[in-house]
Amino acid sequence: MLQSLTELNDQLVSLKAELSDKVHTENVKCFRNIQDLFKVMGDKVDTVSELEKQVGTTKTFAVISTVLAIINTYWFCCNRIVYIGVLWFDFLINIIVIGWCSSRLGSCTIF
To answer: Within 13 A of 46's CA, how many CA atoms are on the CB side?
Structure first.
């Protein structure tokens, strides 16, 4: 009976060592997988950061282009209105200058 207990104890010790080795091997596999996952995620975070910078630059360019397009459209419309004769800028300028001259000098002649 004592011999069978000793054999059983030896078997349990060997089983414990084998189980410990298998658990260690599995833990190393999991650690390496997680390590690789962090490397891949780090690369993806860097890629996303670069894309965010590019989107910010593109957004700024789009806003500037929109503002310039609005100014260009306004200028074009004003030129067309003057061209067809709806507004007379020379007439308006003369009125402003005459008003300013008469208020400063008493009278003013514009040629």
So the answer is: 6
54: its two tokens: 């590019």
The mean of the pLDDT values for the chain is: 80
Tell me the whole-structure pTM to 2 decimals: 0.42
Asked whether the beta carbons of 98 and 108 are under 8 A apart, the reply is yes
In this structure, are residues 110 and 94 in contact, taking their beta carbons and an 8 Å threshold? yes
- Rounded mean pLDDT of 15-43? 92
